[in-house]
Amino acid sequence: AVAALRGVLSLHEDYPDAHYNLAVSLEALGDYPAAAKHRARFAQLVPDSPWAEQGIAMIDTSGQLDLANGE
Hints:
Layout: H1 2-11, H2 16-28, H3 32-45, H4 50-58
């Protein structure tokens, strides 16, 4: 899934769903710094989304995922 989503983003870098799904996939693999980057980008692209708010709440001030604040 990660390779496919990265491929999508290489063609459509502003595709919010790909950023969100890549973040979720990277979290499942334990790559929290990369997941935080994609959660933040998703939130920039669709700031009114409830998932954007949740994603931003999970990113601490250092830009890392804070899983205590997520679901």
